[in-house]
Amino acid sequence: MEDPRPKAAMIRAAMCDLNGVWRGKLLPAEQLDKVLDGGLRMPLSVPAIDIFGEDVADSPLVFNTGDADGICRPTSRGAMPEHWQMDEAQFVQVVLQAEDGTPSMIDPRQILAAIAGKFKALGLTPVMAVEMEFYLVDASGAQPVPPPGQDHANMLALDNLADYGSFFDEVYSACAAVGIPADSATSEGGAGQFEINLMHGPDPLIAADNAIFFKRIVKGVAHKHGMAASFMSKPYVDSAGSGLHVHFSLLDEAGNNVFDDGTDAGSDTLRHCVAGLLRLMPASMLVFAPHLNSYRRLSPENHAPTGIGWGYENRTSAIRIPGGPSKARRIEHRVAGADTNPYLLLSVLLAGVLEGLERREYPFAATEGNAYEADLKQLPGDWLASIMAFENEPALARHLNPQFCKVFAAMKRQEFARFSDRMTDFEVATYLSTV
Hints:
Layout: E1 10-16, E2 22-28, H1 32-36, E3 40-43, E4 69-81, E5 90-97, H2 108-121, E6 125-137, H3 158-163, H4 165-177, E7 182-187, E8 193-198, H5 204-224, E9 228-230, E10 244-251, H6 268-288, H7 294-297, E11 310-312, E12 319-321, E13 331-333, H8 342-359, H9 383-391, H10 394-399, H11 402-420, H12 425-431
Parallel strand pairs: 1-5, 11-12
Antiparallel strand pairs: 1-2, 3-4, 4-5, 6-8, 6-9, 6-10, 7-8, 10-13, 12-13
Helix pairs in contact: 2-5, 2-8, 4-5, 6-8, 6-9, 9-11
């Protein structure tokens, strides 16, 4: 039977930049083979475009190189349907490489591929899954407000989900169409805030692909239903922030979980990895909280960590070791906001794990009780402090690559300067006639 749906007239081919923004081109459907065969080209500097859509002035990839083109190669998923789009266009995710086939080391997907390859060389397979929170909002006015029926927080309320049943049905259908393993949905702690978990899998690249395309699906379906979906870390000052939690374990070549030693505490390897993650946590903060708004989420007693600590079944800690069967022993990393780039997030987490495997140190004592009241070293509390911590950590450059670290820091300094050059109405009103 012939498919009654209209044939896609267009192809969207795009890559994910360092901020997690899609950058790409719209092409006629007749050029699909060209895209799938690597015939599409874009500047090698594209992944380093800042959040405002501008080149990074200090990037060595722009004027110093003549802003040369690279070759775009499709990922293994090929052309994916976007049924929520009016034109039923197909979407092709691409990665960037130089003319000689060398992967771009500022392409976030290829940064993750490189560090995942280091685990393969060690005979280890990271098994990773993400939990992603977001807000549905009415963005028709000057400031976002919750959509109808979502005027107050209602944690785990089934009726909140039922009120938006058609939205969630379409999200799950779109995820199934492209192989994204969407699991349970819950109503969260803010008005119009929800979370959908993505199931774990033994490939960090696929886990990050699923996360970044899931965000695209949620935003697209929300728009179709007359709303906006926001993964902003803190869209409302007085409501819960949105996080992106990562659960992961490591399998050896025989498929055994190396975090499992049959006990509730987990193996020495698990504790080595926790120690490495804690060691690199301050420098990794720029990835966990990459934007000015990110730091509004990280406040005490707000279900977002502020101290560098870990604990067993402790959701106030930055790192939580969940309970359950020992064969499922894993680490949950709870620091990142929903505004993080999933590729970079998984990359810096794996860098912390590598640091732990190399050093084989043990972490300080696990926190019991309220981590906000514990005597813990604090995470960088603002954007500039995080930029400086990132720049001054040689281990990240060693585990990832120096070019990425240089370009990412330059991008964030440029964005920081842009915000610093603006004065709010509140600032002017406060000081204009009072000082």
